[in-house]
Amino acid sequence: SRVLECQGLPIVNGQCDPYATVTLAGPSRQVLSEAKKTKVKKKTNNPHFDEVFYFEVTRPSSYNKKSHFDIEDVDEVDKMEIRVDLWNASNLKFGDEFLGELRLPLKFLRQSSSYEAWYFLQPRDNGNKSLKPDDLGSLRLNVVYTEDHVFSSDYYSPLRDILLKSADVEPVSASAAHILGEVCREKQEAAIPLVRLFLHYGRIVPFISAIANAEVKRTQKLFASRDPNTIFRGNSLTSKCIDETMKLAGMHYLQVTLKPIIDEICQVHKPCEIDPVKLKDGENLENNRENLRQYVDRIFTVITKSGVSCPTVMCDIFFSLRESAAKRFQGDLDVRYTAVSSFIFLRFFAPAILSPNLFQLTPHHPDPQTSRTLTLISKTIQTLGSLSKSKSANFKESYMATFYDYFNEQKYADAVKNFLDLISSSGRRDHKSIEQPILLKEGFMIKRAQGRKRFGMKNFKKRWFRLTNHEFTYQKSKGDHPLCSIPIENILAVERLEEESFKMKNMFQVIQPERRVLYIQANNCVEAKDWIDILTKVSQCNKKRLTVYHPSAYLNGHWLCCKATADNTPGCTPCTGGLPANIQLDIDGDRETERIYSLFNLYMPKLEKMQEACGSKSVYDGPEEEEYSTFIIDDPKETYKTLKLIIEGVGTLEQEHAQYKRDKFKKTKYGSQEHPIGDKSFQTYIRQQSEISAHSI
């Protein structure tokens, strides 16, 4: 449903700051979806929204989540309706003012896939009270209804295989996934099903790595003197795919990091306005600055301490961005940070703070005062994360530059770099690809000798421990040669050790191959948790990670926890894993492939034009014709081969869909339980099929 614009909305108390909410309602007008909201348009009663919202209706046997609505029969769709409510964002305590509504039954949409019209806004249904719709203004709405029939998995194999091989195609611009991004009107249109498909089959990281590398090369080639800090800033397929991945995989991450403090800001309503012109009567500028500073400090700390909770798939993508940018811009040491911060701060945390309702952090759009507070916090966090050298110059407003002086300390830049190091270096299988190891944590702890000698004394000694993204080492003192080095890939589990083992608190164990265990005591419980979290984080993608462990030590010929006598007895307790870094996503791969097929089918004329462009480029190596210049074609022959496979695969699926419709028409009996007598939708379908048959004859 695309909400386009409104005209002539009523002005309430001298102002009109309208926004729209869109919901899907069921047969008895029960609400089937959470309200989806547009942005607030300030100071206008003729707002132009042009925002799109998606609702999905699925069969109960299909996968299900909160944004999907189960129906027992497809024809129940006819009984549903889209409801659009217009509201005026108000400063008043009793809430926003209702301006009017419209209700659009979906049965109209099943007759025409796209439906655009102007509607008079209606009052709420007030029984027998007189209605005056003329006074409420009007709204232009464009609703698109798409009905997909998803076949069983084997039907999609040819097209799905071409798509999943995209990361391995050289150059990646000749791959099926990249071609989809080229022919779609908007990159976002392609990114949504591609990301979901690649996430489902575990191919998202290699694909994004490939298209990111290609984008960096293209940027460097086209703009040799371009500022490396501007890479990945455009609306390219790379940036849209990473945005979509963060939105899907990072939603739980946002909940655990930002939601508690966002809830507090929305509930407490502390004054935080720091623009002297906008100060309300009775407010003190210095008090407001202090309120805002405390909020920024708390959110900054929560974010920079959250590295261990960052989902693995996001970490792997950030690692690829960091490597790609560092290789291409070797003279700029900061580019490995800015390439990552441009996503995690600029396109993830800052937007979530600015519009928490769009990231499911709050149920409703915040009130104007809270919204203003969140805007100021978001601007400051975004600038802190950017690591730019002249940060005050980033602000157009002098009051923001003055406020930012609070944060012009090296500790903030160091905290950002440590956070970016952690989220862009963990969980990698090819650690040696980084030129220099990244130091993640170090400090003194007490370790128990691992007993390499059969009759050696297993005593406790104080050692300097050092963790990088390559290895975990310890030595006598800082700067000494390591006495022991454990490669990250040899860390099979990191778990707490029960106090009964050695009568010592704050102990944990690092389990290695061949049942070797390093027992360590941290200085306090906080340090112990930090070490366990970060060691788990960097090792969580190791292929041989254990699923069970012994929570106590092996002493005096038996395990203290389970009393087993053999020292090689498998663990008796499930490993904790330690981190919610891999949230399971509810994705149907066949559904996403069907969506991609639909897009290819929709943009078939562009696919054919791209084929022509490949032929033109391979034969004539001169200036490109204008109609072909919109396509990225690095290798015409490879691109042509892929296009041919796509068109064949789409053609085959199109035939299957046509056959399915013909079979449904022939086999479905009017008067059956599926389509009882009086089923108007089936009668309409029979009439349409008869017209098609007559026309073809």
Automatic annotation (TrEMBL):
Highest taxon listed in the record's lineage: Eukaryota
Domain (PH) ranges: 438-540
Domain Ras-GAP as annotated: residue spans: 186-386
MF GO annotations: GTPase activator activity; zinc ion binding
GO biological process, one term: intracellular signal transduction
Domain spans labelled C2: 1-119
Keyword annotations: GTPase activation, Metal-binding, Repeat, Zinc, Zinc-finger
Transmembrane segments: none
PANTHER family (UniProt xref): RAS GTPASE-ACTIVATING PROTEIN 3, RAS GTPASE-ACTIVATING PROTEINS
Protein name: Ras GTPase-activating protein 3
Biological source species: Nestor notabilis
